[in-house]
Amino acid sequence: MRLSRRRLLQASGAVAATGLVPSRFAIGQSAKVRVGLLLPYSGTYAALGHNITDSMKLAFAAAGNKLGGREIELVQVDSEADPAKAPANTNKLIVGEKVDFITGPVHSGVAMAMVKIAREEGTIAIVSNAGANAVTREMCGPNVFRTSFSNWQVCQPMGAEMARRNLKRVVSVTWNYAAGKEMIGAFREGFEKAGGTVVKEILVPFPNVEFQANLTEVAALKPDAVYAFFAGAGAVKFVKDYADSGLKARIPLYGAGFLTDGTLRAQGAAAEGVLTTLHYADSLDTPQNRSFREAFKKATTRDADVYAVQGYDTAQLLIQAMDKVKGDTKAGKALIAAMEAVQFDSPRGRWTFSKSHNPVQDIYLREVRNGDNAVIGIAQKAVADPAKGCGIA
Length: 393
Ligand code: PHB
Hints:
Blueprint: H1 5-16, H2 24-30, E1 33-39, H3 46-62, E2 66-67, E3 70-78, H4 86-96, E4 101-104, H5 108-121, E5 124-127, E6 144-146, H6 151-164, E7 169-175, H7 178-193, E8 197-204, H8 212-221, E9 225-229, H9 232-244, E10 253-256, H10 264-267, E11 275-278, H11 287-300, H12 306-324, H13 333-341, E12 344-346, E13 349-351, E14 361-369, E15 372-383
Parallel strand pairs: 1-3, 1-4, 4-5, 5-6, 7-8, 7-9, 9-10, 10-11
Antiparallel strand pairs: 2-3, 11-14, 12-13, 14-15
Helix pairs in contact: 3-12, 4-5, 6-7, 12-13
P-hydroxybenzoic acid (PHB) binds at residues 106-108, 129-132, 179, 231, 258.
């Protein structure tokens, strides 16, 4: 890991702090731990940012609002899910606010900028949603962690599943940016390996939600099925438009689980029967998931979803690791080792990190039934991202 100027100054300060001068740790111990959140609080991904934030707050409150004995201070910045603003927004938190940890974002393009700067500055980054494959591949590093998923991990298992269902010709539809393209690419990899063909990849500019022309094109192509990735407000609109256009009755809709996660109330009957894969499902029947969903509902009056789970797990990671190093945010390798070793029962299932700091997790096959993402199987067990190009894996 490259040492930034700020880190070098901190390190030399620590060497000078001997004798009667209190050590950096004694000084630091009384200060608050500053956790930066770079998340969308406006735009098509706003609901995702709010659920991640609120469940972090829920988990921190349950831990007495302390990390390793030190009070927590959250510093929130609205990313607007805008990659063009991501370098400035990241610098605001890392350089301006001097946060101890930076978490977020939702958007893969924002993540690329956030992780690049966190690597340069030596700040610990915990990606709490964005699936950009590079984060735990080429851009991986000792101080880069992800508590969500890689775009490949979530979507690749659906390819084989759709081929098993005897679907041969598929059209994909997604937003034209890194996450959409990587998710479709992963699905396509699995589908074509199993003998299927993606006859057309339709790309819609992000964050447009005018789908009429795209749906007309799908109707003309007459595929056996459609595979889609949209999320947040865009997913609500796409699933409703797909049903309203009459396509749903003729061509089954499949997708990345984000298409139907945190969206079902707004989608209503339009989402019934949609099949997706994801590392979580509302209906997972475990004590951890039941109690988490109950606590989240009580705190927010909203239903938990995959984003809430990722926020909760990000907080668990911080709570456990900071306890182990007794609140010493400057513990360096010991703090990173503590984060790598964290294990617990998450609402999504057993939590463990791969060597590249991405979760190893089951990918569930879900079908929307009676307004719920019902688990109808495990599409693939214990999926680890291949971590190609990651030097630490
Ligand atoms: C992403 O940009 O990586 C992304 C955004 C929203 C999702 C999933 C992935 O629901």
